[in-house]
Amino acid sequence: MAGKSKRDAMNLSRLVQDSSVSRWDDDVDTLVLGFGCAGGCAAIEAARGGARVLVVERSSAPGGSSALSGGVIYCGGGTAIQRACGFDDSVEAMRAYLMASTGDCPNAEKIDLYCRDSVAHFDWLVSLGIPFKASYWPHNYEPTTDDCLYYSGSEECAPFNRLAKPAPRGHTVQAEGSCMGGRLLMETLVDVALREGVEVMTDANCIALVAGRDGAIVGAAVRHDGETRYIRARGGVVIATGGFVMNREMVARLAPAASRTAPLGNPFDNGSGIVLGEAAGGATANMHAAIYSCPVLNPPGLIRGILLNERGQRFVPEDVNHKRIGEHAVLRQDGRIFLLVDSEIFEQPAGVRPIVATGDTPEELEDELGWPRGSIGATLAVYNRHADEGHDPLFGKKAKFVKPLTAPPYAVFDCGIEATGVYYSFTLGGLCTAPTGEVLNAEGRAIPGLYAVGRAATGLSAQSGGSSGLQLAEGTYFGRLAGRAIAAALKSEAA
Length: 495
Ligand SMILES: Cc1cc2nc3c(=O)[nH]c(=O)nc-3n(C[C@H](O)[C@H](O)[C@H](O)COP(=O)(O)OP(=O)(O)OC[C@H]3O[C@@H](n4cnc5c(N)ncnc54)[C@H](O)[C@@H]3O)c2cc1C
What we know:
The protein is an alpha/beta fold. The chain has 15 helices and 21 strands. Strands 1, 2, 3, 7, 8, 9, 10, 20 and 21 form a nine-stranded mixed beta sheet that branches. The protein has a four-stranded antiparallel beta sheet with strand order 14-15-17-16, with helices on one face. Helix 1 (2-14) packs across helix 10 (272-279) and helix 12 runs antiparallel to helix 13.
């Protein structure tokens, strides 16, 4: 009870009634909270629709996690780059892949919409001046060059290659070096926004939403220069403040599996916007969900080994995206996984992967690991029987990675969370929204004047499914839809 009343009191301070606001310091059409990719795209579209837009950004410069990102954007259905690189893709294949790969309750409405508009959305990004090179990167990890298109998910891998025609859909912003595309993406969005007349206030932390008597959100309170400023927003407030992976208390409470891994994000990925939206009556969903990055099969020659759980059994085709391996490892194998190689494919992995057993026979490995006799032996016997014929009927690893492991000595690397330190995560849960970004309450009704986009909202994926690029895709795309929805509502009101 004490906890509940404390939370009620905190919610009250996060939601202020307009009757208690004695003076508005500014009056805009659209107030966007946070200038990452989602806030930036919402601001651009609202401004293009004729609205006066102010973005308040807690940090000293726009960018957020979007600027730290690799700049991989998941687009498909036949983009100009896919066609130029000789790949045939369709809206149906993209839709089928996303429906199959994004967890138990994929958001069909948002997936449908995004797949239908994906080509046009990609063209829009290009029209802003964001560079993409018409080139293919033939690996399943982020380009380390300025190349663009690659399989950023597990489209080519089992079981998805049986469910949907594969096509590479990771479009990487052209920039030299690994993980530089996000910075360029954000520099371009900032330039375009400023050109469109969007105003930006940095070092400005939104601490409360302001509600009218009917519960509609009419503005926000922002701390700036040591003062609290009240900003009225006639058309709506857009929460675009990112996720909550940096708020370790929230992660421990709501997404506990992620608390075992290192957080990936900017310091203000602390859930502040999600909490503000909740105080205004917004419902949340998928708060347990996270992306788990775990690049343990590096160099890629190690994909020819087999990943084992603590029972000596395989659990995933080794050629899937490392985020899919991460999801399996963290959520289903308690973060304890191992890689078995023979002498023919032995390579020193990049980074720390301690060797925990070596031996000329499976029995020697089992004894060294303290695992039951036959556990590795049975797995290896089945794998090798089929690998001799060049295939992997149990998990469907692609033939080019299948090789009988018959050349002793064998080695087992520990690829688990504790041993490697290369497991990273960020959260996927957030405020429930309609595709227009309108925040929904627990009954599914929109809260007038309140929008949420990007990682502060629930998006396409209930689980990551291990496809890189979906966050920037949904942040930019649904950000745009929210900006347009606000501008359209303002216009119809004026009419
Ligand atoms: C290293 C790294 C690599 C990644 N690579 C990729 C990739 O290649 N492709 C991909 O799709 N995803 C990638 N991601 C994930 C992706 O970057 C994020 O999920 C996405 O950028 C979130 O966008 P956003 O606009 O919702 O939030 P952000 O970009 O984080 O922007 C939110 C902004 O809100 C501000 N803010 C927070 N609270 C407040 C407040 N109370 N008041 C005012 N402002 C506030 C923050 O300072 C921030 O600038 C990567 C993430 C990281 C960290």
